[in-house]
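Exercise 7. Given the components listed, write out the predicted structure of the assembled complex. Treat all entries as one system.
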Amino acid sequence: MHAVEETPRLSTFLSQIANGLVLGSLIALIALGYTMVYGIITLINFAHGEIFMVGAYGGLATLTYILPTAIATTWYFALPIALVAGALVAMLIAVAMERFAYRPLRNAPRLAPLITALGVSVALQEAMRVFYPGATAALPFPNLFVEGAVVIPIGDGVVIRYVGILLVVMSLVLAFGLERFIERTRLGRAMRATSQDRDVARLMGIDPDRVIVLTFAIGGALAGVAGVLYGSYLNNINIDMGFQNGIFAFTAAVLGGIGNIRGAVVGGLMIGLVKALAGQYMPGGTAYDYVWIFVVLIAVLVFRPQGFFGESERVRA
Amino acid sequence: MAFLSVRDLVVAYGAIQAVRGVTFDVEQGQIVSLIGSNGAGKTTTLRTLSGLLRPVSGTIEFDGTPIQKMPAHEILSRGMAHSPEGRRLFARMSVEENLRLGAYTRKDEAGIAQDMQRVYDLFPVLGERRTNKAGLFSGGEQQMLAIGRALMSRPKLLMLDEPSMGLSPIMTQRIFDTVRELRDEGTTVLLVEQNALAALALSDKAYVIDLGRTTLSGTGAELLADPRVQEAYLGENVGT
Amino acid sequence: MTATATPRTPATPAAMPRHTGRFAGLLDVAAPRSTVLMIVGGVLTLVGAYLPWATFVLNEGPYPEKATLNFFVAPFGVTGFRLHLVILGLAAIVVAALRRIPARHRIVRGLGIGVTVVALINGLWITVEGGGLGAITASEGSIAFGSIVALVGGLVTVLGASAGGLERKPVWTWKLPWWVEWVLLVVLFVIVLLLVAAVLTSGGQGGVVNPYAGVVFLSLLAALGGAFAALNASGLLTWVSVVSERHRTFSVIVLLIVALLLPLTSAGTEYWMTVASNIGVYAATAIGLNIVVGLAGLLDLGYVAFLGIGAFVAANLSGAAASQIGIHLPFVLVMIISSVVAGMFGAIVGSPTLRVRGDYLAIVTLAFGEIFVRSAQNNIGGLTGGANAIPNIPAVGVGDFKFSDSIMIGSLRLPSGVLYYFLIVLLVAGVMLVFAHLKYSRLGRAWIAIREDEDAARAMGIRTGPIKILAFLIGAMLAGLAGAFFAHKTAVVAYDSFRFLESVTLLAAVILGGMGTIPGAVLGASILFVLPEKLREFSDYRLLLFGLALVLIMRFRPQGIVPDRHRKAELTDPDVEDVAKEGPGPLPTRVEP
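Answer.
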């Protein structure tokens, strides 16, 4: 064995791990919304991926049309403003979606809201394509963070961009904050109560409609943040990004045990790693990385539908 | 005007009427029970009182206000608490969290802490295991927690649905003693029970519900002595 | 005691109906004058139809370059939507005036809704395309408020009809001599054929050639919808369906013949034959999906993959230059192979149903669908052509004779594509036959039992596992069959015809039409594949409207257009849950004694 040959291999491997973790923490952020909504109303909110997409466009619109150029190009102004804007837009859409599409179906059989979710998903995607200027093609998205990268000197060098690190850190911080919120606060307790037994939650004086709106709002805001970070990291966004990443995120949520916050994060990271490593090492390369994620999804649903962290009593499948 | 007054209540599940004319009054400071056989409409009545179901017709007045159209959380904040049939605790939460949820509508931290202590005094076993998950408790302990949880909203009227269900006679006695204690402290209690003997012995007033209608009423002692009640509801309960 | 229970006196026949809901007050005021209102509405509709409307003279392009805004002032030259309004208005007046007609309020309401929608569509079109409200009100001295008057007429009609109280749909039990009923059925089916041809061709082809086709089409659809609602309210439609049920075999044969006669109507051009064939492909596929979703209750979100598998198999066995397998098999054999291969994949996709249920199963099928699309896009094994597709698939033919040719019958020349149309009609008929047989067989009952309650079905001794896989297998085989046809008809098979959105569209077709029913699937497929063809000028908004439509259907008519009579349904509100609704919603409907 020659070290000369081994180190480039190692650096490729580590680079893919880094890529996987960045993508994975993005997916985790989206997966939180899936897992929360499913936990409370056992709905696979198909349109959640589109909320992520809308959040990205909301951030871009703020940068492009609202902020003066001087501010939009200064990262320490632009980044927080765009994140908040993306989160707000996504939150608004998510709340409106709950109010007008899902709430009327609260007591309907389960197929109805699922199909509604498909409809909302198509409608949101198309609304964006039709009404956002230039959205028929991919739009460039500026990097909102410091340019540059950390280079770990192994082999050809493992390059990790700062914005990637930002993405990972923000995802973990937000997920941690969310878990604290759900475990420690009065509203968080109300959310857990509603998810365990909605009728009894009502007897405790909890208004389930408000809790459900809150759930959609939080999930939406996180997806909006994810959307802006995605744009910032990949430097372009398109209207298809929601569907694909939404499915990844759903897979992550199931993988981690749906209804479980930590599970969603771990599931997201695992999905990110699968995609990055499969694209590098599996036959077919990046053209088939997407396929491997679906293979994982099917395998998990068939063999361990409660996920790796799920409590088996939760499983509805 | 009675404290709680229910008139001609009709409640339906789709086309099926489960309650078809229930009328009764609850006076402040009393224990009033609704007795009747399985499927008579007692639980449906209670679920309607607490706002989980909507009546088709009829009125419910509590403390002078019609509440039949109010959502559950408003009814609770007006002072009616409902401990549901089968206890329905939040099994994956601790005792303390269950009690905190009982006090969900309240914001006075000091008062909540005080009431929590009161529940622990009432049921010491809960105080000893306050961080344990509710799902791990025995039936009687769960019933204690369910009552404690309902008390945490400081209700003026406490509604208990089948508190004796699945409990041993000793435990049932224990629970009913607590109910009497609560009444003596000033809480009005509306009790739904299949265990008619125990319920009537405890009650200041009672109503018999049969096939969705209130058919008989009287003081607990009167109904205990009523041959119709004895035949229909006490026969199989004597000796349990 | 202030409030007591509302008195629930039994309504005497003379008593005015009590209204609830948002417009209760208005309806109560209108109630004593309902007949007058209905007649006034009808008259207003007539007046509106004869008043001048601003409309476009279609030369050869869109307004304002190629078309001119024109005011019809000629009093009696009514055609098109104005003719429809006249008919609907007259019908409303007549029905309103004849008090002996049962359910007349309900009938008139249907007519009124039709008038309202027709007036709205045309009025909106004129305002949006013709330069704002100015186009409606006045130009060059003429005052063109026809659309406003007709709209008011429609609304007044609906108000009067609703205020009068909606009666229950009457049930007719007439029984005529069998030959009279046969003749009646033949006449009715021919009328249906002519209507279908009229709807299909109304407004002509969409697109650049005729940018207003969509509006003409929608307006006709609204008028027909109003008439249909009225007929349905009169109970006549139910009676006709009872009659056709009585002569089941006869009806089926006549219907088949009538379908084969479509090329003789105004729709007998190459273009419409192609449109009709495409509808046929999706209708056949939708019926296959209906087995999986409608009968067995298994939600499949990747179903279009089976159509794709069938199409790619057929393409590879067609002798097309781009195919990997250089053999050219006879079409019948190709169809069988495509179907079998698709069926095998169906069984594979269906196998997780052994362990996975409900919406998790939906996700598994979606995942399989995505794997198929991705693999096809990457030209897996060189079998799909990837982004280049598989082009130039030869037409089905016997010797020198090609199915794509036009044919002569005597002196009658049928357009090219007509043979494909015949073929797909027969294919759809065959698929329908399979579906109908399955639905009423032991297998069908087992599927329905699984749909209603899987655990109970298992407890009754149904071996649910193999039976669920069988649903996938049979559904996939039917789709594979349609795929083989599709490959030869369109001559090109590309992966992007089989994306997720197509699966959703097929699912929407099944749900829109009515789950578990044959006419439902065909109707749903027709609507969803005719609309985009017709509404080219709205093509930008097509998918947006599609998504919103899905949401609205689930909200307001989850059982679809043709609900399954025997179906307790996953999609209709379970009764018991009704009372449990919280919040300031309306009270549950009062049960009158």
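Discussion: Chain C has two domains: 24-244, 268-391+412-580. Chain C touches chain A through 52 residues (CB under 8 Å).
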